[in-house]
Design a protein that fits this description.
By secondary structure, the protein is an alpha+beta fold. It folds into three domains: 7-162, Glutamine synthetase, N-terminal domain (Ubiquitin-like (UB roll), Roll), CATH 3.10.20; 171-219 and 237-424 and 435-560, Creatine Kinase, Chain A, domain 2 (2-Layer Sandwich); 576-701, Four Helix Bundle (Hemerythrin (Met), subunit A), CATH 1.20.120. Helices cover 48% and strands 14% of the residues. The chain is globular, with a radius of gyration of 28 Å. It starts with 6 loop residues before the first helix and ends with a helix. Bound molecules: adenosine-5'-diphosphate (ADP) and magnesium ion. Residues 201, 328, 456 line the site of magnesium ion.
Length: 703
């Protein structure tokens, strides 16, 4: 029997959460902190000092020596710079462990080494980190020791957001304000705040660390840039939900423990579709905390993998031809008096507030499909969307049978008098209880699916931060709420006006609803007929950031300024070029130093064999044929290699960020594909013993 794990005690043990604050802070200070958390505003200088001291005492009791302002720059990962609590020694050479309110609230940092997309000239490097009181501080423990991490936002000297948290927090305020106007219209006078809740399911791959170390492509780019397919893929559907192997199981157990300590509610775990692919889902929580926690999930996944001799791949498409990894961003809106605005109840046709919210969301997603798509764009995700069991790059909304029927009634007749109800499920086995079915079946192919009392945005890539998708979702829905509220607040007869407005929105935006198979080719054509954008590439998506419609939306709600949007567009181009450049250089390096030498060696062995066999008077037809085939393919590889070198050099020399990104897309990527094709063919021809790197089969079937 294994020892019992006290999860209740373990959970949050490394977090300076509300419970610990209540214990450790004077009542008045605690109240003040809670008020700022709930309603915004500023903590007094005195209280900040008290909080900082309590936080530091707790951290030091738990072994901490340093603190850090933990933030999320625009490269999508987290950043930290550690400062010890030690003070200047006194006369007698003694130091103290101290931490002030000022240090807690504000940090000054050299921000010039983080992507800024032209927001700052590098000689103006000052950036500030500002404490996010709504996300609890936590302790990180590794070889460096124990570090107190304080979640912060990063802004430039002139106040522009240089990170992902600031716009997210701004968007949360915007949607709260606008959603409150909606619930007020329906007589809810109690609610003072509406919060987006987010649960992010995280997919990942695990590979053996020793094998990983033999693949420079995995090391430098996080994905395999070469590799012939294994004889078996996922066609037997024997991995999804399959029994979890011992090695993976012990990884998952450790991962859960680490996450629970950090207050992350790791809840569901299972094997995913592809061999070596898995998923973890936490329980949903406030968007801002969910974003921070998702970063911790990704970091912890990588850290724990090392301990188990594994490597965790978070790339969206680590293996060509095999299921890619995404992150399902489950999103809903809840008032602080407990109403989920996305809960339709049993009879959605009678729930006017829900229908209004739904109509607004459909309108928002239809008008800003390009922005929503952009919010989930990253270089790796381009390889995943529309390929092997991932949603297409076309945004559409799945409503399911019940809601689709209600929407149809409303569009056709202007009123909905019934809702399809879930029936009993008859199993035909007398010992199995007949159960209530959901009113709606699941759909797995939609990028934006209604799933009972939330929307599930399935387009997000597995390695990406979920900050931008949620910022955009909050922003576009806030705008639709605002426009609806503007009209409804002025209405002479509210009932008639809300009824007309719902019908109007649903009718105007019905093209965004699609309940069919999103993976089918036919949908791509149908979507084109409907005029829905199909943006297949990250750099194409970037353009949607600075359209008049986007600037108007984000500036109206103070979420991004035009300059901030332009900087994000610029960063997208830069990131695209840099990432592709690294991939191209890695391919060139691997081809030159690993594959081509191995193949040359092999041709020598073959040539020697042909010679020796002939010398003893036998025919060497097979040997000679293999030599011929290998030599021919080697020729192609060598030519493709030269072309890739030329294309990469040419693209690298381009100065304009956008032009450069397109050169990488249209020329370098094409050459990369050619080189890969030749090398992968060689892999199928050459003796496995001389092949210089682990194969797909070695990587995904032997973990
Ligand atoms: P599925 O595989 O059906 O998508 P999972 O259980 O894997 O379901 O994940 C569902 C995710 O949605 C979980 O993270 C869960 O906490 C989250 N979730 C459930 N209800 C809500 C809600 N009202 N708002 C936001 N997220 C939610
Ligand atoms: Mg899901």
């Amino acid at each position: 029997m294994s020892e019992a794990l006290n999860v209740e005690e373990l959970f949050g043990s490394k977090v300076f959460n509300l419970g610990k604050m209540r214990e450790r802070l004077p009542k008045g200070v605690f109240k003040e902190v809670k008020k700022v958390m709930d309603q915004g505003g500023e903590l007094s200088k005195e209280s900040a000092d008290v909080v900082a001291k309590a936080m530091k005492d707790w951290a030091v009791e738990n072994g901490a020596t340093h603190y850090t302002h933990w933030f999320q720059p625009l490269n999508g990962i987290t950043a930290e710079k550690h400062d010890a609590f030690v003070t200047h020694p006194d006369e007698e050479g003694r130091t103290l462990m101290e931490f002030s309110g000022k240090e807690l609230i504000k940090g000054e940092t050299d921000a010039s080494s983080f992507p800024s997309g032209g927001l700052r000239a590098t000689f103006e490097a000052r950036g500030y980190t500002v404490w996010d009181i709504t996300s609890p501080a936590f302790l990180k423990e590794d070889a460096t020791g124990v570090i107190l991490c304080i979640p912060t936002a990063l802004c430039s000297y002139t106040g522009e957001a240089l990170d992902k948290k600031t716009p997210l927090l701004r968007s949360m305020e915007a949607i709260s304000t606008q959603a409150l106007r909606i619930v007020r219209l329906f007589g809810n006078t109690e609610a003072t705040k509406v919060t987006p809740s987010v649960g992010a399911e995280q997919e990942y791959f695990l590979v053996d660390h020793e094998k990983y170390l033999k693949r420079p492509d995995l090391i430098f780019s996080g994905r395999t840039l070469f590799g012939a397919p294994a004889p078996k893929g996922q066609e037997l559907e024997d991995h999804y939900f399959g029994a979890i192997r011992e090695r993976i199981g012990s990884y998952m157990k450790d991962l859960n423990i680490e996450l629970w300590k950090l207050g992350v509610t790791a809840k569901t775990q299972h094997n995913e579709v592809a061999p070596a692919q898995h998923e973890l889902a936490p329980i949903y929580e406030t968007a801002n905390i969910a974003v921070d926690h998702n970063q911790l999930v990704m970091e912890t996944m990588k850290k724990v993998a090392c301990r188990h001799g594994l490597n965790c791949l978070l790339h969206e498409k680590p293996f060509a031809g095999v299921n890619g990894s995404g992150k399902h961003d489950n999103w809903s809106l809840t008032t602080d008096n407990g109403v989920n605005l996305l809960d339709p109840g049993k009879t959605p046709n009678e729930n006017i507030q829900f229908l209004l919210v739904l109509a607004c969301i459909l309108k928002a997603v239809d008008i800003h499909a390009d922005l929503l798509r952009q919010s989930a764009a990253d270089v790796g995700n381009d390889l995943r969307l529309g390929a092997d069991e991932a949603p297409p790059a076309i945004i559409s909304v799945f409503l399911g049978e019940q809601l689709d029927d209600v929407v149809r009634q409303l569009i056709e007749t202007g009123s909905a008098d019934h809702s399809i109800q879930g029936e009993k499920l008859i199993t035909g086995v007398s010992t199995l209880t007949d159960i209530e079915k959901d009113a709606t079946d699941r759909n797995r192919t939609s990028p934006f699916a209604f799933t009972g009392n939330k929307f599930e945005f399935r387009m997000v890539g597995s390695s990406d931060s979920i900050a931008s998708p949620n910022t955009t979702l909050n922003a576009i829905v806030a705008e639709a709420f605002c426009e609806a509220a503007d009209r409804l607040e002025k209405a002479e007869d509210f009932d008639i006006e809300v009824h007309d407005l719902i019908k109007e929105y649903l009718t105007e935006h019905q093209r965004i609803v699609f309940n069919g198979d999103g993976y089918a080719k036919a949908w791509v054509e149908e979507a084109e007929r409907r005029g829905l954008p199909n943006i297949t590439c990250t750099i194409d998506a970037a353009a949607s950031l600075t359209t008049d419609k986007a600037v108007e939306l984000f500036e109206k709600f103070g979420i991004y300024s035009k300059t901030e949007l332009e900087s994000r567009k610029e960063i997208t181009y830069e990131t695209y070029s840099k990432t592709t450049n690294i991939e191209a250089l890695t391919m060139i390096d691997m081809a030159k130093k690993l594959y081509i030498p191995a193949v040359i060696e092999y041709t020598k062995t073959l040539a020697d064999t042909v010679k020796v066999v002939k010398e003893v008077g036998e025919e060497a037809t097979v040997q000679a044929q293999v030599l011929k085939n290998v030599t021919a393919e080697l020729g192609k590889a060598s030519k493709a290699l030269s072309e890739l070198e030329a294309a990469t050099a040419k693209a690298s020399a381009i100065k304009n960020a956008k032009d450069q990104a397109y050169a990488f897309k249209d020329e370098v990527k094409v050459s990369m594909d050619e080189l890969r094709k030749a090398i992968d063919t060689l892999e199928t021809l050459v003796d496995k013993k001389v092949w210089p790197v682990p194969s797909y089969a070695d990587l995904i079937f032997e973990v």
